[in-house]
Amino acid sequence: MKKLAFVATILLVTAFVGIFYFYQNIDHYGIENTYKNQDGAILTIQLKAGDSGTSVLNKLEAKGVFRNPLFAKLWLKLHPEYSVVKKGYYEFSAGASIESIFNAISEGTVKQFSIALIEGLTLIQWLELLANNDAINYDVDDTNKLYEEIVGIPYKNEDSSTNFATLFCHNQYHSLEGCLLANTYFFDYKTNASYIIKRAYENMQIVINEEWQDRYTDTTYDSPYEMLIMASIIEKETAVESERGVISGVFDNRLKGNMRLQTDPTVIYGIGTSFDGNLTRKHLRQKTPYNTYVIKGLPITPIAMAGPASIKAAAKPDVTQAIYFVAKGDGTHQFSETLAEHNAAVRQYQLNKGK
């Protein structure tokens, strides 16, 4: 009897030691920190709706990350609060413990991806960026349909009492060009491209609303959409922050003086995908609804996506007497008030630039 009690005591002590050892070493034996991907993470896992804590263990075991799968299963049994997990794409860095992994999965701390949709690019170029991002579900197959889904209702001639904030991008061409705010957008794995575009449209609504309300009232724009068209031209003309307002002022002067804008980026946009990088005199004479060497006033739509700085410049042009400018070849421009000054600048910075 005494011998039996002694054996039982030994077994009990062994069990306690085993449990203590288990808790002290669960992470050591539970996760094998050797599986690194190119991003430096040891583990990525995607969970679907309906997955459980057991599903997580099975997925992890299938990836071969456990030194001792039994320890991991025992740990989950002792922590039933982790039986409910949230769907999503998760990524864990080297040294992650089994507890930190389940904490993240139960709280839904999914990996955030990002994409930079930058100013100066066109809608087509943005769509290409979205389509080529493996973390995005590209669901755009018809830009006209996309316009209807995002803008909301078909184009009509709105009266002045209409709330522009909901209609700022309405146009008869069903074009989203310029209507999306350039920014870096964060998203969950396999977010729909159309959802990211909608966010960019909503962000632009906020910016265009603020700038329209705060604009100089003596500008020539009849609508926020026209101001957005001008912002897109400014965006394409310069990347120099200090020049945006001046260029806006030049264009404002030309519009008020009934002069053609004569800006090359509008010509290039009108040529479309066939443009090979060489702008010719023939191109300048080619009649398109965008060629501001041929048409008076603004093009029919924006020609690129604009950022907040160009929108602000369009809303508040600098006061200037200049009505011409020419590229100096270093990213900046020479501004002139008279045609004679402009021709001299052209000779200096363009015609003689190769000499």
Explain how this protein is built:
It is a single chain. The chain has 355 residues and is mainly alpha-helical. It has 13 helices and 8 strands. Strand 7 (324-327) and strand 8 form a beta hairpin. Helix 8 crosses helix 12 and helix 9 packs parallel to helix 12 (308-315). The termini are far apart.
The average pLDDT is 84
Percent helix: 40-55%
Number of strands: 8
Q: Rg from C-alpha positions?
A: 31 Å
SSE string, helices as H and strands as E: HEHHEHEHEHEEHHHHHHEEH
Coarse morphology? elongated
Spans with pLDDT under 50 lasting ≥5 residues?
A: 32-38
Strand content: 5-15%
Distance between the termini: 110 Å
Summing up helix and strand content along with how strands pair, one would put the structural category as mainly alpha
Tally the helices: what do you get? 13
Task: Describe the strand arrangement of the main beta sheet, using strand numbers.
Answer: 1-2
Largest sheet: 2 strands, antiparallel
